[in-house]
Specification:
Structural class: alpha+beta
CATH class of the largest domain: Alpha Beta
Number of domains: 2
Number of helices: 15
Radius of gyration: 28 Å
Distance between the termini: 45 Å
Strand content: 15-25%
CATH topology of the largest domain: BirA Bifunctional Protein, domain 2
CATH architecture of the largest domain: 2-Layer Sandwich
Helix content: 25-40%
Shape: elongated
Length: 420
């Protein structure tokens, strides 16, 4: 039994699993490239104040889930619990708002940390892919982000995709809704869970997102935010729906969808798949027109989404999507004796320079054991070197799929031609 184990809520990616991550990363890069998004990488930790201001002090993430500590310089820092705030900080700090807009960015390898009960596909340390689209107030920016996500999920065999969509208003119309919602919730105060009793005054929208059954029943009778939207927010949503219709993207208006972060304005959305059961949400995002200004930059509209990589891998597993395992080795060179070992090593090096994936014996196995090992690691070809082969300057190249053997000279060019 191992003396040490990975911390609860974390997971190792084993050597035989890494190709799945590489496949997803390559597919993501292929898709975002078509839309003109460029990759960014932000630090794993940020000053805590960034998340207090950006994500919101009354959110569950800030109140319950952040990994926050004081460093040796007596500064409070936090392992990032989500991707957007760090990208916005980078956008402001590096004056990217001064460049021609829009600015379209994505992050791919983004470790994210939340202290919560680990669940399938949702770990305390997980990794997110996300896109952030700055500088446009138009619904086309929202639609393009949704298009990126749906194209990715469709290409991976996620069936029955539906965009759950809502508008949560903006600073001009949301206060009126807040007052109507508070008035309604106060009438059900004794039925609310203890957390929602606090949310009622500080962040009433979050009550609509509560998972406690009694609170869900109360939320079902709450006023609908769509009845309080200003003309601008209504117009924005109507134009977005036309664009989604034009792309053939299925959507439903969900008046209870609010998402869990304070920075959202107008559009919020989640994308679900009917092929993965009850835990169907695979992606979520929305518009955050006030966040750049909140973090110290000029007023800059923005929209984006985030998607958990571990969650997506679980979705692919549940849907039976097969990621083809790549060929690890083109050739295994088996050897007998010290001179043959040296020749195998030098020949393997030359073949690698020619682009071939080659392995040799590093353990001191018998030839029989080397042949078994070559089969185990899936080598396409095997070349056996011994005294006779060295004396002749040639050897038999065996194709493992059918056992066919071809004589080859012991130089890289000759061998490479036969393996093409």
């Amino acid at each position: 039994m191992a003396a040490y184990k990975a911390p609860k809520g974390t997971k190792d990616v084993l050597p035989e699993q890494s190709y799945q991550w590489q496949f997803l990363e390559a597919r993501i890069r292929e898709i975002v490239k078509k839309y003109g998004f460029l990759e960014v990488r932000t630090p794993v930790f940020e000053h805590t104040e960034l998340f207090l201001r950006g994500v919101g002090e009354t959110t569950d993430i800030v109140q319950k889930e952040m990994y926050t500590f004081v460093d040796k310089g007596e500064r409070s820092v936090t392992l990032k619990p989500e991707g957007t705030a760090g990208v916005v900080r980078m956008f402001v700090e590096n004056n990217l708002f001064g460049e021609s807009q829009p600015t379209k960015m994505f992050y791919l390898y983004s470790p994210t940390f939340r202290y919560e009960r680990p669940q399938a596909g949702r770990l305390r340390e997980h990794h997110q892919f996300g896109v952030e689209f700055f500088g446009s107030t138009k619904p086309s920016a929202d639609a393009e982000c949704i298009a990126v996500a749906t194209e990715l999920l469709s290409s991976l065999g996620c069936g029955g995709l539906t965009v759950r969509l809502n508008s949560i208003g903006d600073p001009s119309c949301r206060p009126q809704y807040h007052e109507a919602l508070k008035s309604y919730l106060r009438g059900h105060y004794d039925e609310l869970c203890e957390t929602c009793k606090v949310r009622l005054e500080t962040n009433p929208l979050r009550v609509l997102d509560c998972k406690v059954e009694s609170c869900q029943k109360i939320a079902n009778g709450a006023p609908i935010i769509g009845d309080y939207l200003c003309d601008e927010c209504k117009d924005h949503q109507e134009h977005l729906l036309k664009l989604l219709d034009g792309m053939g993207i299925r959507y439903v208006i969900d008046p209870r969808l609010v998402r869990g972060l304070d920075y959202y304005t107008k559009t919020v959305f989640e994308i679900t798949s009917d092929s993965i059961g009850s835990q169907s949400a695979v992606c979520g995002g929305g518009r955050y027109d006030g966040l750049v200004e909140e973090i110290g930059g000029p007023h800059t509209p923005a929209v984006g989404f985030g998607l958990g990589m571990e969650r997506l891998l679980l979705v692919l597993e549940n849907t039976g999507y097969q990621i083809e395992k790549p060929v690890r080795y083109d050739l295994y060179i088996a050897s007998m004796g010290e001179e043959a070992e040296e020749k195998a090593f030098i020949l393997a090096n030359s073949l690698r320079k020619g682009g071939a994936k080659v392995e040799i014996d590093h353990i001191g196995r018998s030839v029989k054991a080397q042949m078994k090992f070559a089969d185990k690691i899936g080598a396409r070809y095997v070349l056996v070197l011994g005294g006779d082969e060295l004396a002749k300057g040639e050897a038999k190249l065996k194709r493992m799929s059918d056992g066919n053997e071809t004589t080859t000279a012991l130089d890289a060019d000759s061998i490479l031609k036969l393996m093409i």
